[in-house]
Write a structure and sequence with these properties.
By secondary structure, this protein is α+β, with helices and mostly antiparallel strands. It has a single domain, classed as Aminopeptidase. The chain is about 20% helix and about 35% strand. The protein contains 2 helices and 5 strands, in the order E-E-H-H-E-E-E. A hairpin with a 2-residue loop joins strand 3 and strand 4. The longest helix is centred in the middle third of the chain and has 12 residues.
């Protein structure tokens, strides 16, 4: 997983850090996912830990997060998929886009 990030300010003047998730942030991510569609977080199990380990080791699987004041407030999954068409260029699949309800309409677009 990538360790560097991009810093910017939101409309409230809070510093936002956009970066890839760290391996030790699984529980924070699962809590954030409760703002997507889950009623609770999955039980810590061997299956959960194995799935998380596989995601973390997959160089084509990226979980991008937005951090404000040390807390994950938004995330999305981006999977890079190898491709044989379009001059053998990969494409990306984006899924599980979520923002904590307290931060919706506050996490603004990053400047280009």
């Amino acid at each position: 997983m990538m360790k560097t990030g991009r810093f910017t300010e939101n409309d409230e003047g809070e510093i936002m850090i956009i970066r890839e998730i760290k391996e030790n942030e699984l529980s924070e991510l699962l809590q954030l996912y409760t703002h997507l569609h889950e009623l609770g977080v999955p039980e810590d199990s061997e299956c959960l830990q194995n799935t998380w380990a596989a995601i973390c080791k997959d160089e084509n699987h990226h979980i991008i997060v937005c951090e404000i004041d040390g807390k994950l407030v938004s995330s999305c999954v981006c999977v890079i998929i190898p491709n044989l068409t379009r001059n053998i260029r990969p494409y990306a699949f984006i899924e599980n886009v979520v923002t904590h309800t307290d931060h919706r309409e506050r996490v603004t677009q990053l400047p280009v």
